[in-house]
Amino acid sequence: MTNILHVEGVEQTELETVAYTVEGGIAWVSFNRPDKRNCMSPRLNRQMMRVLDELEYRADVGVLVLTGEGTAWSAGMDLKEYFRETESQGLAGTRGAQRESYGWWRRLRWYQKPTIAMVNGWCFGGGYGPLFACDLAFAAEDAQFGLSEINWGILPGGGAAKVATELTNFRNAMYHSLMGENVDGKKAAEWGFVNEALPLDQLNARVTAVANVLLSKNPIALKATKDAIRRVREMTYDNAEDYLIRAQESANSFDNEGRKEGIKQFIDDKTYKPGLGAYDRSKQSV
Ligand code: ACO
């Protein structure tokens, strides 16, 4: 059963732009404007931030999956409501709309729980922001990815150019941005936009399986790890080495027992092998 997050004083049409359900430790969050191919309007951007707020620290949420209702993941920014209507309000309107969209993408990049993009269909332009914000990404083989900005006369802004160069190589990024040609899920996996592409009817099962593996890991270590992978990409080797020492020491102060239990179950109890899976967290005393 999907939920709509109710917020006092906010119109129903805004609340309904995002749907979610929590099941077995996984929060399934959907762009919920299927009739508009889930393009991102200011209303959707505001509601998505509220839903992320609602779910981030809930004890029953260990992994968040972001997907789309209907045939699209997200057809990018809403050309009418995000561009035309906010531009008509002047610079303050434009900047306000940017703050709202960039705000939830940033929030998602540094989310407390691991995140997975489940790209079920169209993914365009501004959609690359949340795509990159998710830690892992799985796509339907037939999903279509496009930097269509060039097709309607702008550059791939809102981080999209940055995302393309972060995820794929220079030639791919340049061709993709200049030509305005789409790539399907298979090519997106080859290019590094997503981890894997699967037939649409297998997508949900694969994402569920991945999420369940993540749920079996130490949550403090997951957060430290996902942040480390994002941070070290921009550091020199020495800076990264230092950052990782500090990050681990900081993680230890939140969860000093977890890693000790992990060592104990391997070295003393001989009940598992870290090279082959995670330790049993249910045996951890604190
Ligand atoms: N902005 C505003 N409205 C949109 C958007 C969008 N990005 N995408 C789809 N819609 C609307 C359509 O206008 C249409 O509205 P209507 O029913 O009121 O006429 C409705 O969603 C359905 O769209 P169709 O085009 O009829 O759907 P179809 O399945 O045939 O095509 C496709 C899907 C290819 C995604 C097409 O809608 C499309 O090209 N959308 C724009 C994609 C795009 O370039 N996005 C912007 C990227 S750049 C950026 O994000 C900064």
Please supply descriptive tags for the structure shown above.
2-enoyl-CoA Hydratase, Chain A, domain 1, single chain, alpha/beta, 4-stranded mixed beta sheet, 13 helices, 6-stranded mixed beta sheet, binds acetyl coenzyme *A, 10 strands, lyase, EC 4.2.1.101, globular, 2 domains, p-hydroxycinnamoyl CoA hydratase/lyase, 286 residues
Count structural domains.
2
Distinct helical segment count = 13
Helix content: 40-55%
The unique ligands bound to this protein are: acetyl coenzyme *A
Terminal CA distance reads 33 Å
Structural class: alpha/beta
- Structural shape: globular
CATH superfamily of the largest domain: 2-enoyl-CoA Hydratase, Chain A, domain 1
The radius of gyration computed from the alpha-carbon positions, rounded to a whole number of angstroms, is 20 Å
How much of the sequence lies in strands comes to 5-15%
Main β sheet profile: 6 strands, mixed
Detail the poorly predicted runs: none
The SSE string, one letter per element, is HEEHEEHHEEHEEHHHEHEHHHH
CATH class of the largest domain: Alpha Beta
